């Protein structure tokens, strides 16, 4: 009887031991599976966060690129064409981004990084092209400024030429007069008796203040300036003469100018050249021969 009881106890103990071992093994397996699941969930969470970060970074790059292009619109047609081309590529990048996000696969983060790299290269190429275009625009602007300066100089020169032509036209008209006089303003052609040499003609009123003279003597010396006896005055006449510009058809009041040279020493025989200037521009001259 005791033997049977002992056997039952051993059997129960063995079953309990086996059950305990099985429970322990099951617990270990469950723990490992649970740990693996947690690790997988953690890895998936990190992957999702990385993908979200990459997506946001790519979207930010796209927005910055768009803003950069919008700021340059309308400045230049060639630049507008470049913006249109780059905008088309940008739309393609946005479509690729949306496709990658919809797929939501494990390799999406790598694909997003690749798209960011391609977008950065696209942006770099765009900036280089804009820099080159800006260089061309700057050169064209400088060329245009230089052209405007040249035009302004030519216009001023043309104005000067018109003024000179008007004076020459007046000088060659009938109102031109040159003479030499001795005492009591009597005419003479003898050098030693000459007290004053004068040349008179009419010019447009607005040119009077710019006219000057100088006299070249037979020996080649040049006389100019009030201190050396050269002067000129506007001769007042009755009535108002009219002057017609041969270039502009404008009718302007003309004034009679009289240039005088009063030598401080006796003149010598020969040809005296009276040169006329309009500002610093030489207009022409007349010769007076004395015996």
Descriptive account of the structure:
- It is a single chain.
- By secondary structure, this protein is of the alpha+beta class.
- It has 2 domains: 2-139, no CATH class; 172-290, Immunoglobulin-like (Sandwich).
- 56% of the residues lie in helices and 22% in strands.
- The strands form 2 sheets. Strands 1, 2, 5, 6 and 7 form a 5-stranded antiparallel β-sheet that branches. Strands 4-3-8-9 form a 4-stranded antiparallel β-sheet.
- Helix 1 packs antiparallel against helix 2, helix 1 (2-72) runs parallel beside helix 3 (108-171) and helix 2 packs antiparallel against helix 3.
- The radius of gyration is 52 Å and the shape is rod-shaped.
Count of strand segments? 9
Number of helices: 3
Q: What oligomeric state best describes the polypeptide chains here?
A: single chain
Q: Unreliable segments (pLDDT under 50, ≥5 consecutive)?
A: 239-251
Give the helix/strand class: alpha+beta
Global Rg? 52 Å
Q: What value does the average pLDDT take?
A: 70
The separation of the N and C termini measures 183 Å
Order of helices and strands: HHHEEEEEEEEE
Task: Work out the strand percent.
Answer: 15-25%
- Biggest beta-sheet profile: 5 strands, antiparallel
> What is the total domain count?
2
Q: What is the general shape? A: rod-shaped
Proportion in helices: 55-70%
